[in-house]
Design goal:
Elements lengths: L1 H6 L6 H8 L11 H13 L4 E5 L2 E5 L11 H23 L8 H10 L15 E5 L6 H9 L3 E8 L2 H13 L2 H6 E5 L2 H6 L5 E6 L6 H10 E11 L2 H4 L4 H8 L9 H18 L3 E11 L2 E10 L11 E7 L5 E5 L1 E6 L2 E6 L17 E8 L6 H13 L7 H13 L8 E2 H8 L6 H10 L4 E4 L2 E7 L3 H14 L10 H6 L18 H5 L23 H31 L10 H26 L4 H15 L9 H10 L1
Helix pairs in contact: 3-7, 10-13, 14-15, 21-22
Length: 647
C-alpha cells in the first residue's frame, strides 16, 4: 500500500521529495571493489553459468534466474546508437545556452530588461550526462552504455528483485573498474526512484516486461529539460486491438484491430506519453518511433512550456474506421486558428466522415483513439543517426537490420498517419492485387504522394483519400475481371460505385523507392529462436529448455568464430579506431561484428535470391490468391435482413 501511494505522489520540490521518500526508500549499500570482484570470481567458477558477450560488454547467465532475451540485441544496439548521437547534441545545446531549466528563461529576460545582461563567451560542450535504466535485470544495457558511450558520468541501473541486483553487481565487476565507476546498481521500485529525482536524468531507458504504462508518469517528471525518454512496450496484443478495453485502461486510447495496427500502437503510446507530460506542463518531441519484432520502441525528447501544451489536442486525432472495408478517416481532437500574432485553441470541426455510413461499402463505423497524429520521427535527425551508424557499422551486431529499418523510416511520408495494406483491400473484393510498382504509379499519376512504412513490408502510406484508392481498385478489377460478388454484399457495393478517377498504371517517377534501386535490404529476416521469452524466475518447459540449449550452442559457435576473427586481426597488426575505451577489444569486436553483419546480409540475399522481401511477399500472395478458391462474400446487414425476410 505504501508503494502504491508513493507512486501517485504529486510533483514536489527536490528537497521535499527526498525528505518524504527517505523513510520508505533506501539505495542498496554499495559494495567495495573487493567484495564485487570476489562475487564475480565466485560466479565465474560456477560451471552451470554461461558467459555472454554483446557489443563491448560481458555478462554471466544461469538458466532463467535473470531475464535475458537475445532478440533484444536489436533494441540495445539501436539504443546505444541513439545515445551516441543524442548525448553530444544535448551537451552542445547546453553549452550554447539553448536548454534552460523551467523558469530560467523568464529570469534571463527580466535580467536583460533590467540592464543586467551578461555577455559571456560560449562554453565548450562538456559531457557529464546522468542516465537511468529503470528495469535493468542483468545490467547488460547499462554496462554497454558505460563502455560504449562518451560523456556519461553516472548510470543508475535499477531493479526491484534483490537477487537480480546481486547478479547485476557480478556482471558489473566482470567488466572491469571503468564500468564499476560509472554504473551504480540500485534495488528499488523504479517509480519511487524517479519520483525522488525530479528532472535529474538526461536520459531514461524503460524496457519493461509487458506494459510501461505505470512507469510513464514518474518517468516524465524525472527527465531533465530537453532530455531523452526511451520506452519499450511489448504488450502488442493490447495495443493492436485484441483487448481494446485493456488498452483503454492502460493507455487512455481505444485501438482498432486493422492492418495499420502496428503503427497505431506507436501512436497510442506517444499519445499516452503526451497526456502524462501535459499534467506537468511538459510536452514530447519524437525523435524516432519504430515497430520491431514483437514490440514498439519510441525515443522522445521532453520539454517544459505552459504555452506549448495548449496545442496538445491538435496533435491528436480519433480514427473513423469502416466496418465493411479498409477505408478510414482521421478526426482531429482540437484545432488552432491564428489571428494576427495570437493563436486560438478550440475543438476541431466534425464529423470527419462524409456521412453516417461508409460511402464505399455502406457499412457503419468504428471509432478508435485518440492517437498521436503528428510525425513519428525527426527525419533529419534520423538521417544523421543512420550516417553515424554507417561510419561505425562494426560496433553493432544488428547493423544490417537497423539500416533497413532506418532507411524505411527515412522514406516514409512524415505527415501521413497510418497506412493501407493493398492486399487486404483486394481481399475485400476478392481480386488479385496489382504489383507494388503498378499501384504506386497509379497513385502518383492521380496527383498524390505515396510511400511505404517500416512497420509492414506491404504498407502503403498515401495522402490520397479512400475513394481514389477504391477507384484504382475498381479500374484494376475491370482490367482483370473476377467472379461477380454476391448481391447485397460489401464487395458488390464497392464495385458498383462509378469510377471518378481513372487509374493510369503506367510507370511513374518515384514509384520505385530509392532504397530498392540501391539494393538496400529493408526487411532483413531474423535468426532462429527470435521472439519473446518467459519472465525470469519461472521454471522453463521442456521445449523451452531445448531451445535454450540450442541457443547456447549457437552462441558458443558464434563466439568461437569471433575469437578466431579477433586473433586474425591481432596477428595482422591492423586496427581501426575504437570507441571511448578498450580500443583493442573494440577492434576485435568490430571485425567479428562486420563478419556477422555480412553473413546476415548474405543470408537474407540468398533467401530472396537478390529480390527485396516486399516483392517476395507480393509474389507469394499472388500465387496464393490464384490457387485458392474464392470465398463467399460477406453480406451487409441490410442485405442479410432482406434475404431473411424474403425466405
Amino acid at each position: 500500500m505504501l508503494l502504491l501511494a508513493a507512486s501517485r505522489l504529486p510533483t514536489l520540490p527536490a528537497a521535499a521529495a527526498y525528505s518524504l521518500a527517505q523513510p520508505i526508500f533506501h539505495l542498496t549499500r554499495q559494495s567495495t571493489m573487493g567484495e564485487v570482484a570476489a562475487a564475480a570470481a565466485k560466479s565465474s567458477e560456477d560451471g552451470d553459468e554461461e558467459e555472454l558477450r554483446e557489443g563491448m560488454a560481458r555478462i554471466l547467465k544461469k538458466g532463467n534466474d535473470v531475464f535475458y532475451n537475445e532478440a533484444q540485441v536489436t533494441n540495445r544496439d539501436l539504443s546505444v546508437a541513439v545515445l551516441r548521437q543524442f548525448l553530444p547534441q544535448l551537451a552542445q545545446e547546453k553549452a550554447d545556452g539553448k536548454i534552460h531549466k523551467p523558469g530560467k528563461a523568464t529570469k534571463d529576460r527580466k535580467a536583460r530588461k533590467g540592464g543586467k545582461e551578461k555577455h559571456e563567451p560560449a562554453q565548450p560542450a562538456q559531457g557529464s550526462a546522468r542516465l537511468l535504466e529503470g528495469l535493468a535485470a542483468s545490467g547488460l544495457r547499462s554496462i554497454r552504455y558505460a563502455l560504449e558511450l562518451d560523456g556519461v558520468s553516472r548510470i543508475d541501473a535499477n531493479d526491484l528483485d534483490p537477487a537480480v541486483v546481486e547478479s547485476m553487481r557480478a556482471n558489473i565487476a566482470l567488466n572491469g573498474p571503468q564500468v564499476a565507476a560509472r554504473v551504480v546498481p540500485t534495488c528499488s521500485d523504479a517509480r519511487l526512484l524517479m519520483l525522488q529525482s525530479p528532472e535529474a536524468y538526461d536520459a531514461i531507458d524503460l524496457d519493461p516486461y509487458g506494459t510501461p504504462a505505470h512507469f510513464l508518469d514518474s518517468a516524465l517528471q524525472a527527465v531533465a529539460e530537453g532530455g531523452l525518454l526511451a520506452v519499450t512496450a511489448t504488450d502488442m496484443a493490447v495495443l493492436c486491438g485484441n483487448s481494446g478495453e485493456v488498452c483503454w485502461t492502460k493507455y487512455g486510447s481505444y485501438p482498432i484491430h486493422r492492418p495499420y495496427c502496428h503503427e497505431a500502437a506507436l501512436r497510442i503510446l506517444l499519445a499516452c506519453l503526451e497526456s502524462h507530460a501535459n499534467r506537468y506542463k511538459r510536452y514530447i518531441v519524437p525523435l524516432l518511433s519504430v515497430h520491431m519484432d514483437f514490440y514498439v520502441r519510441v525515443f522522445v525528447r521532453v520539454f517544459t512550456s505552459a504555452a506549448e501544451i495548449k496545442s496538445s489536442a491538435s496533435k491528436q486525432a480519433y480514427v473513423w474506421q469502416s466496418q465493411g472495408c479498409d477505408s478510414w478517416w482521421l478526426q482531429p481532437v482540437g484545432q488552432q486558428q491564428q489571428k494576427g500574432s495570437s493563436i486560438k485553441h478550440m475543438p476541431a470541426h466534425g464529423p470527419a466522415v462524409p456521412q453516417n455510413r461508409c460511402p464505399e461499402s455502406g457499412a457503419a463505423f468504428l471509432m478508435g483513439g485518440p492517437i498521436w497524429a503528428r510525425p513519428l520521427h525527426d527525419q533529419a535527425w534520423v538521417a544523421g543517426l543512420l550516417q553515424q551508424m554507417e561510419a561505425e557499422s562494426g560496433r553493432y551486431a544488428q547493423f544490417a537490420r537497423l539500416k533497413g529499418i532506418l532507411t524505411s523510416v527515412l522514406e516514409e511520408l512524415p505527415d501521413v498517419p497510418l497506412y493501407y495494406n493493398v492486399h487486404d483491400m483486394c481481399r475485400t473484393v476478392r481480386c488479385t492485387p496489382p504489383r507494388a510498382e503498378q499501384l504506386r504509379s497509379a497513385i502518383i499519376n492521380a496527383g498524390f504522394r505515396v510511400s511505404g512504412s517500416h512497420a509492414n513490408p506491404l504498407a502503403l502510406k498515401t495522402d490520397a483519400p479512400p475513394k481514389v484508392l477504391w477507384d484504382i481498385i475498381r479500374c484494376w478489377v475491370k482490367m482483370h475481371p473476377i467472379k461477380p460478388p454476391e448481391p447485397g454484399s460489401y464487395p458488390a457495393a464497392i464495385l458498383s460505385k462509378a469510377v471518378e478517377t481513372e487509374a493510369d498504371f503506367k510507370k511513374a517517377a518515384g514509384a520505385v523507392p530509392e532504397s530498392v534501386k540501391a539494393g538496400v535490404k529493408r526487411f532483413v529476416q531474423n535468426p532462429a529462436f527470435w521472439g519473446p521469452k518467459a519472465r525470469h524466475g519461472r521454471p522453463l518447459k521442456p521445449e523451452q529448455q531445448k531451445q535454450q540449449l540450442a541457443q547456447a550452442e549457437q552462441r558458443r559457435t558464434q563466439q568461437q568464430q569471433q575469437d578466431e576473427a579477433a586473433a586474425a586481426a591481432g596477428s595482422s597488426g591492423g586496427a581501426a579506431p575504437g570507441g571511448s575505451s578498450g580500443a583493442a577489444e573494440a577492434d576485435a569486436a568490430a571485425a567479428a561484428d562486420e563478419a556477422a553483419a555480412a553473413e546476415a546480409q548474405q543470408g537474407s540475399a540468398a533467401a530472396g535470391d537478390g529480390d527485396d522481401l516486399l516483392s517476395l511477399l507480393y509474389d507469394k500472395e499472388d500465387e496464393e490468391a490464384e490457387q485458392q478458391p474464392l470465398k463467399k462474400a460477406r453480406r451487409s446487414p441490410a442485405a442479410a435482413a432482406a434475404a431473411a425476410g424474403g425466405s
